[in-house]
Request: fold
Amino acid sequence: METDSAEPADSPDSTGKRPWLAALLSVLYPGLGHVYLRLWGRALLWFLSIVTATALLVPPEVYPSTLSVSAAMSAAQALPLTISITILAMTLLNVLDAYLMAKRSGEEGAEDEATCPNCGREVDEDLEFCQWCTAERR
Ligand SMILES: [Zn+2]
Reply:
C-alpha cells in the first residue's frame, strides 16, 4: 500500500507547530497544548476552567490518592456519569481547540507572518495590539 501521498499535511516546516503534538500535550495536561503554541491566555483559561470544574464537580473523597491510571480509572467510575461526561467533554474541547489553533497558526504562518504594522516585530497572534509598541493591529 502506498501511504506517502495520503500523509496529513502537518509538516513541521511552516511554523514548526504540529497539531497532533498540541492535541497530545492537551491530553496530558489541561492547557499544555496551548502553552506549546505560545497562546498563554488560552492556556491559562483552559487550565483554570478544567481545574475549577474538576475541583467543583468531583467530591474530595473520590479523588485518587495516588497518581496512577488505575486510581484515576476507579475514581472516574465512582463519579456520577454526568460529571464524568462534563469533564471529559471539557477535556476533549480543550484538545480540539489546541489542535485547531495549531492548524490555524500553521496555515496563517505560511502566507501571513504575524508582524506589527508599526514596528514590524513578531506579534502574538492572540493579541489585538502589538506587545512591543502597543500599536493596534488589524
Ligand atoms: Zn509594534
